[in-house]
Recover the amino acids of this structure.
């Protein structure tokens, strides 16, 4: 427990209330602007572009070899 990241501890604050005023968002129902414009730093997308095709090719090779 000595390696606990301080960002992931409980603050003791009350949780944010659940929004119930849905009428106020009828004019602009889309996601918040930061959710769309936020820069993707350290994302997994660039790694998955290489891992998934390689995994599919290896899976196909294994499937072709084992089906006979």
């Amino acid at each position: 427990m000595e390696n606990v990241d301080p960002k992931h501890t409980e603050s003791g604050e009350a949780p944010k209330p659940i929004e119930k005023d849905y009428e106020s968002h009828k004019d602009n129902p889309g996601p918040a602007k930061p959710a769309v414009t936020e820069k993707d730093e350290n994302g997994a997308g660039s790694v998955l572009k290489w891992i998934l095709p390689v995994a599919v090719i290896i899976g196909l090779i294994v499937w072709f070899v084992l089906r006979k």
The mean pLDDT is 81. The radius of gyration is 23 Å.
